[in-house]
Amino acid sequence: MRPWMNALWALIGLIVMLYTPASLAASRPQVEAQYQQWLDNDLWPDAKAKGISRATFDQAFKGVTLNFDLPDLVMPGEKPQTPQKQAQTEFGSPGKYFNDKTVNNVTSGGTARAGQYARILQSVEKTYGVPGEIVLAIWGRESGFGSVKIPYNAFAVLGTKAFLATRKDMFRKELLAALEIVEKGYIGAGSMKSSWAGALGQPQFMPTSYLEHAVDFDGDGKRDIWNSVPDTLGSIAHYLAQYGWQRGRDWGYEVTVPESVSCALEGPDQGKPFSTWGKLGIKRVNGRPFPAAEAKGEGFLLMPAGRHGPAFIVTKNFYVLKEYNMSDLYALFIGHVSDRIANGAANFTAGWGDVGGLYRSDIAALQRALEKKGYDAGGADGFPGFKTRRSIGDWQSKQGMAATCFPDKALVAAIR
Question: pLDDT digits over 292-328, tens only?
Fold first, then answer.
């Protein structure tokens, strides 16, 4: 073989080697080395300025490496990309959120613990004004009453996301807060476990929420939301109280909404006195009047599936529940299960329609189309929140259509 051919084959071999998966995997140590430099040269000065000692810093990151298996990471030199599957994820019926297994598990677990922890829950409610059944429902939903394994090292998760995630600034703030938690002696660095998203303990608080809302309810000098039931229950209630929970008010009531009342009246910015909703013909499904104490109180129409599911008049406390998780369905789940725990309430009276099946990209296109027509659809995120739902209803009414306030395939085609 001629010398130049030997050189050519050698070059081809080198190119093949450079582009094999094994060689791509070898880039991870390089990223790891960059991460260690970032910790020392970038994060440490910031932590030091916030009063974190070098001993705490070193303890937190001792033996901690990047977790490349976490979602939403962007390798150095790459541009963030929206995963294709996110745009094509199917949006299911809201009713699926209330599957019997999950609802029954949280209800039965909460009912059992209502008796087991009655004294603590009474003290929590006396202190913060939040009913025990609400606290139990959140505890059960977030961590299965502490039974769900929370396996991740919080500093591995938060460090990885602060260095590689698409929302670096947010996770950097949370990472510094986690260091502050250790610095103040609330928990040792090695014991601080989190979810894959960096949420801590049984209430699933992010570190900044821990610093703001966690309490030492058992009086042992620590705010231990990982192992202490009193601290967990007290911290959940304190969180809601700080976001404005109104003592003595319920979260809301399932109602019937006559056709004469537009579903486009939904939303936290379209409140009316309960007495006014009653005069419009809206009634509780159990036939009872709204509580007399609520007559002058402000209520808000909630129709999570438009005309295809149950309807509710909710209080401001419902929107406090949303501060825990910015989802109408989450807040409704907590309210509904709390009613079951407190008084054995049955399932919703109205059924959930078999709606859904659209791709998130279809809903996002519908939202953009509504915005072009001058509606505030709440952004094109592919989720039909209350702004999208009521915009749909208003558009339908103006077209002489029966307002359903929920997207479907025909509507997507019509509004485009």
Answer: 999 899 999 999 999 999 999 999 999 999 999 999 9
Q: Are strands 272-273 and 90-91 parallel, antiparallel or unpaired?
A: unpaired
Torsion angle, alpha carbons of 283, 284, 290, 294, to 10? -90
Q: Mind giving me the DSSP string for 300-356? A: EEE-TTGGGS-EEEE-HHHHHHHHHSS-HHHHHHHHHHHHHHHH---S-SSPPPS--
Query: What is the greatest pairwise CA distance in the chain?
Result: 99
The Cα–Cα gap between 312 and 283 comes to 10
Angle, to 10 degrees, between the axis of helix 132-143 and the axis of helix 229-242? 110
Tell how strand 272-273 and strand 193-194 pair up.
unpaired
Return d(Cα 14, Cα 9) in angstroms, integer.
9
DSSP letter for 166, please. T
pTM: 0.89
